[in-house]
Amino acid sequence: MNKKTLIFAAFLAAGTGSAAQAETFKFAFQGSLNGLDPYSLNETFTLSSLGNAYEGLTRRGVDLAIEPALAERWEIVEPNRWRFYLREGVKFHNGNDFTAEDVAFSIERVRSEGSDLTTRVPADAKVEIVDDYTVDIVLTGPNPILHYEWDTFYIMDKDWTTENDAVKVTSASDTTPNYASLNANGTGPFKIVSHEAGVKTVFEKNDGWWDEAKHNVDTVEFTPIPSDATRVAALLSGELDMVYPIPVQDIKRINDNAGTVALTGPELRTIFLGMDQMRDELLYSDVKGKNPFKDEKVRKAFYQAIDIEAIKNKVMRDLATPSAIMISPFLFSKSSEFERYPYDPENAKKLLSEAGYPDGFTVGMDCPNDRYVNDESICQAVAAMLARVGVKVDLNAQPKAKYFAKVLASGGFDTSFYLLGWTPGSLDSWNVLSNLMNCRNEAGEGSPFNLGGFCDDKIDELSGKVLTEIDPETRDGLIAEAYKISHDNAYYIPLHQQGLAWGVADNIELVQRADNQFKFRFINKN
Amino acid sequence: MIGFATRRLIQALIVMLVVALLAFTMFRFVGDPINQMVGIETSIEEREALRERLGLNDPIPVQFLRFVTKAAQFDFGTSYQFRQPVSELFAKRIPATLELSLTSALFALVVGIPMGIYAGLNRESPISKLFLSVSLVGISLPTFFIGILLIFLFSVTLQWLPSFGRGETVQIGSWWTTGFLTISGLKALILPSITLGLYQMTLIMRLIRAEMLEVIRTDYIKFARARGLPDRLVHFRHALKNTLVPVITITGLQLGAIIAFATITETVFNWPGMGLLFLQAVQNVDIPIMSAYLLLTAFLFVAINFIVDILYFYIDPRLRVGRP
Amino acid sequence: MPYVSNEEVSAAVQDRSNEQPPAGRVSRILDSDLFHSFLRSKITVVAAIATLILFLLSFLAPWVAPHNPFDLATISILDARVPPIWQEYSDPRFLLGTDDQGRDLLSGIFYGMRISLIIGFCSVIAAAVLGISLGLVAGYMGGRVDSFIMRVADVQLTFPAILIALLIDGIAAGIFGGVDREFFAFYILIVSLALSFWVQYARTVRGSTMVEKNKEYVQAARVIGIPAVIIMVRHILPNVMGPVMVIATINLALAIVTEATLSFLGVGMPPTQPSLGTLIAIGNDFLYSGEWWIAIFPGLALALLVLNVNLLGDWLRDALNPKLR
């Protein structure tokens, strides 16, 4: 490289630098945006980010209500036939028209091998193209929540995907990079103009967007910053306009700092404790020959030994809402009918004595240390609280990769006592029932995330009814009944709904949705 | 000579193979990659199918053979997280790590050598003692802590220097990006280079001091002095020259260490280099990246060792007799 | 950082090897030169006293610490993040305040220092034993054995302590399944650190041995049929103890710092059994939120400990270097 080109390159960089400064919004998140294929990873941040470039038939608004997006409206024409009327005049970023062909293509692609979002559309559902802007989905049975997760089922351009040889979903076993994993072509309010995985992704405003733009930023720059301290420092020093999540202890500092403010709100994730109620002898305990968690008294003793208010105040610094059920109160109309068992260490000791453990026992506890807000601290606090009623907890806190490898089905549900968090992707209770509360076998068939493996036939029966019940009132009644059985038997020990905490510069307006999705179409920079 | 070089080359190859085996074995146990590659709601059947496609169910020797054959062709596979070839990811990250490493090595030399000379020549002066004490404090605090204190002081409190990243970079050629050509790029280099170079600086300073102390006592220097040569000339023409040989050797060897240990600095400053990529890979059980990183560092060290050995062979004739 | 060039150390070694090796020299040095040079250096005397106090506080932690931070039944989350005694909202029970779990920080530092020191000592001893043995064997036997051991050393050098810790951690987890970390972390750290440090001993000892074995007295011992093991241990080993002591002292400091770094990267001691490094790593998260004491006090304790040990190591190296006398 000769000197001339060097200087020219430097000049170019300076030029673009100043031009882009006009309305650039820079933010950081703890994780990275790994690939751009909208079907290859079912993970909140990936879907949230790609949702700025891609759009689904539906979308969710500020309050998470389902809104029309690429579909202007839809109706259930027959019990098993849904009809979607598509928005006309919508163009993909490359100029292609959006039509029914694209919807049919996307439905096939999202269900194909390698997709991580196959559950978005039932495998036996059929797609019928009525005309260019009308699509029918034919189901094999009634399903009132078919479109609940379609806000994150993004529509891709059939022609673009086919031309670039990206019809097959990007999979980790691919040896050559998939075009769709490195490029994006959606209909959304922002185009992805550059993407360097793990380093930086740049979004630019899509002037041809079909909806009226309420945002005023032209460029959005995303940088992943895994370290909490570095992320907070980058906000405090004014280098970034927004970072998330921020550690709860830094909320005050960010609020006290001139120019930044902490935005907090509830999240839909329920943090809870689970116990092995399936094995006849616990894997990690000094109790031999029997499983203490099969005894309802022991489970209730654990429940009542935990001072949830102390966890809320001291560990979570009030950024948590203690919870009596396994779903966020925002997502279930009858949640106010439930109340936590009170904190009562005396009664806990009494229950343990009655169950035959007057001196308590030892149990191993599994806990992630980089997955949920203050997960390890919560576990430590729980261990200390249980120590006070005589139960000795051997805490095994690990990074999420190791933790999940151990406790999930793939690791053989290798746990006796664990902490887990759950957000129902569909924002609906059926997801909770079918994933966490139904019976399962040793291979995990049934409810795969019922790690403790408790089994209550009544709950199974109720969730079967919930799936097909159309009437909302009856449906909520059935759900409440199932939750009540879980509560009465203390199958789980729900702890709290964790809160969201984002750090934002003063001159930025944005919307913090309870599903922890960050949508650029709500950003305004003053 | 050729026989010696060939033997060393074969040894180096065996070393690389052993490293490859270790790397491979290690990563078999770090964690289940499948959990990182799919969402939490993916069914067990789909997980098993993916495992099969990735070849994770094949016998271990088959997997190892596949691994070595590919690695020898610089094919480290596709990253589980990024779904891009690892070699491409590394190519993008290498400039960041090299620029940081070189800057910090330069910092260590430019600051460390004069301090060492001074402390060596003026053994009892208070400033020398101060240098020594500061250098001791420098190696008594963990690197990550120094980095975080620097960020706290210069980025958050004073807001002088950026706390993370490389600033704006300029593309040179098809794959090199540099931060040397923009103001923000240069500013971004300051704190990480100091953090990374501090330890090397201490090392070089102490080494030069020790060498100077020894050289000054040699008859040869005493004789030069006795001849009435001016101090300055004695110190710099004769004494310093003699101390520089070990310094250069060690700096060369330390360059490899700097690159390997940039990992911690890169984590603290979110510097988009190979070290950060590696640590994130460890957290996400991204086996291809981890093995590639390990093999690359191993290669670097083995290569440097090999070169140093060959050089010694020329410099020190005794070795030619003593070795089989 | 977990690497050190001991070129400075080996410089001292090579010179010593030229001296005559009469028996019982170690004790004679302790009697005379070393001790005098010790008393001459005020800083060293202060460092030695400070080190002794820190060692005592750590090893007597169960008796001198006001609380037992490992007894879960006595700590309460309600006492979390109490500031040090001279600040507002402090609690007289906690002189230096508490951490995020409500553990007394002063007691935590005593106990943490104890863990750091035990890990440091154990790993240094393990590394020394391993390194000296391999170094003696390599230097004495020469040939293929020597080249094999030195190539193993090369392989080892390619793995920084962090990688070794990850490696051993991963293998332990693989072999023993999910047995709890609290129990393992301690041993994993010792093994990882020992494996990262042995090479220095091996290289130093090998160098001296190679020189030493060609000396007449060793040749003579060989001729009269004294077994190799005895020659190595009785005649060669005492001659290399000086530099080994220097390396060991410097390594102790290095081991403590490395352990802290490993904790920062998440493969160190777990927060339920915190070492000084873990305490700093925990405190780091509270640095911006105004709860500075959680990181700063353990940080100061660590710096103090390592600084004093390093000062002793420095002095030892200079004192043992005949050229500087």
How would you describe the overall organization of this protein?
The complex is a heterotrimer of chains A (about 525), B (about 325) and C (about 325). In chain A, about 30% of the residues lie in helices and about 20% in strands. With about 525 residues, chain A is α+β, with helices and mostly antiparallel strands. In chain A, the strands form five sheets. In chain A, strands 1, 8, 9, 10, 11, 12, 13, 16 and 17 form a nine-stranded mixed sheet that branches. Chain A has a four-stranded antiparallel sheet with strand order 4-5-7-6, with helices on one face. In chain A, helix 11 links the parallel strand 14 and strand 15 (about 390-400). The radius of gyration of chain A is 25 Å and the shape is globular. The two termini of chain A are about 40 Å apart. Chain B has about 325 residues and is mostly helical. Chain B has 13 helices and two strands. Chain B has helices at about 1-30, 35, 45-55, 60-70, 85-120, 125-140, 145-155, 185-215, 220-225, 230-270, 275-285, 285-315, 320, and strands at about 170, 175-180. In chain B, strands 1-2 form a two-stranded antiparallel sheet. Chain B starts with a helix and ends with a helix. The two termini of chain C are about 30 Å apart. Chain C is elongated and about 75 Å long. In chain C, helix 6 (about 105-140) packs antiparallel against helix 7 (about 145-160), helix 11 (about 230-265) packs antiparallel against helix 13 and helix 12 packs across helix 13 (about 295-320). The model of chain C is unreliable at about 1-25 (pLDDT under 50). Chain C is mainly α and about 325 residues long. The longest helix of chain C has about 35 residues, at about 105-140. Classes of the chains: A alpha+beta (about 525), B mainly alpha (about 325), C mainly alpha (about 325). Chains in contact: A-B, A-C, B-C. The interface of A and C includes residues 251, 284, 381 and 383 of A.
Short key terms for the protein model shown above:
heterotrimer; A: 526 residues; alpha+beta; 15 helices; disordered N terminus; B: 324 residues; two-stranded antiparallel ribbon; disordered C terminus
